[in-house]
Amino acid sequence: MIYNRKVLYKIASMAFYTWFLITACHEEDFNTDPGAFLRFENDTVSFDTVFSTIGSATRFIKIYNPHKQSIRIDRVYIKNGNQSDFKMNLDGISGNTIENIEIRAEDSIYMFFEVTVNPNDPVEFSPFIKTDSVFLEYNSNQQKILLLAYGQNANYIPSKSNKGGVELIDLKGSTQIWDDPRPYIVYGIIYIDNGNLIIPAGTKVYLWGGLTKAIDGNGNSFFYNDGRIIIGPNASIKVEGTKEKPVVFQGVRLEPFYQNIPGQWSGIFLDKMSRGNEFNYTEIKNNLIGIIADSLSECKIQNTIIYNNSLYGVYASSADLFMSNCLIYNQGSSSLYFTTGGNYEVNYCTVVNFGNTDPSVYLSNARCIDVPFCSEIYEYPLKSTFVNSVITGSDEDELWMMEKSTSNFEPKFQNCLFRIKDLIKEFPQFNSLYAFDCINYERFNSLFKDISNDNFHPDTLSVLEKKAIPIPGITTDLDDRTRDVLMPDIGCYEYFVK
Hints:
Layout: H1 5-25, E1 39-40, E2 44-47, E3 55-65, E4 71-78, E5 86-90, E6 93-94, E7 97-103, E8 107-117, E9 129-138, E10 141-150, E11 155-157, E12 166-177, E13 184-187, E14 189-200, E15 204-208, E16 210-215, E17 221-226, E18 228-231, E19 235-240, E20 247-251, E21 265-270, E22 277-280, E23 282-285, E24 287-293, E25 298-302, E26 305-309, E27 312-324, E28 327-331, E29 336-347, E30 350-353, E31 361-364, E32 366-368, E33 377-379, E34 382-387, E35 390-393, E36 399-402, E37 409-414, E38 417-418, H2 423-426, H3 430-433, E39 435-436, E40 439-440, E41 448-450, E42 455-458
Parallel strand pairs: 2-10, 11-13, 12-14, 13-15, 14-18, 14-19, 15-20, 18-21, 19-22, 20-23, 21-24, 22-25, 23-26, 24-27, 25-27, 26-28, 27-29, 28-30, 29-31, 29-34, 30-35, 31-36, 34-37, 35-38, 37-39, 38-40
Antiparallel strand pairs: 1-3, 3-8, 4-7, 4-9, 5-6, 5-8, 9-10, 16-17, 32-33, 41-42
């Protein structure tokens, strides 16, 4: 049968009208189950560029609806509203509050964010890190996305171009002070020599680190960890933090995900013969090794917290080290590793090591050079004194010692709490020769307030209370609270009642 053009047009019009009526009468079937959640690519939108001039940047995040029905988002809003430094565009709609957004079944939409930064604003008006939050409300649920941007200019040491490089900073007999209120960002490896580096209270030091590939003189590739401060033999570093304004060393990634990730930078190295180094009220975290003290270097570490490092908290070899009121915890290996001898004095410190089989404290007067053969061994006399300190963790032996009989080996533990078992087999006279008024403690209940949240203050009725002896010159704890004059507590914290 052959239809003319008018008949065909009439049939097509009727078909379209019928389809329109059917779709117009159909109501969208929405999922209203409070247990039906949307999925985000990430829970943080990060603007990880450090601005050097006024400018803006845009980032986006994808939101998925994995369910078989559509979901209607009642409201999406930026917490700080019109006062926020961030702007939002959701599915083509701009504004800091957007309502009635639909995501079809098994579909997705994009959220775009823009931040505008003037990095030269004064510190009091423009902090280094700008944050805000986006909330999505639907089906009686509320989900949150964090917005994070590096908002302020910084001091780049030596420059941004040194990432993956090594730079000698010759102070030529002078003193350099990092006292700018803006943070300091260290790129690559810097070697400071022939002078003194002073870091005043409240300074923030960020190190741009990570695994870096390089080429040696023969054209061979090798890898090393970037983000390192080395203090040369003719230089010193003095970190002058206070309880109210500690000095913080950490990596550049400040998103919540990276808050407790180790290995983000390399560490602070004290080269051979470097003397007069001091750290007071300092926080060192998330690197490979907190502080490395090489042979015949000297360092005083007081009121300092070192944690979340891939290997060691403090690694010292034939060094002179004095520590007091320090908290060292959550290392990939030992918290304190003193090898190849040296002179060490550790007072009122809490050294804990949970989650691995390495001891919290390792002491040795020798070091094997050609592991595993050990045909070549370096030796140096060791003298170490631990007073009023905690040495514990999840292993049965959190203190371990290795003695080479041809060199002097003089460890001493006075009024300490430690956890040991097999060490007694290696040193049968340990308790009579090396330990005085100490406690070998295997249980953790009532020892600290909350180990799971890294709260190492003494708990109520803790065995640490009133078991220490007064030490002249150390009258306060890590919290700057006055210690009991006659019967202080073991560890970096004195017990207190709120």
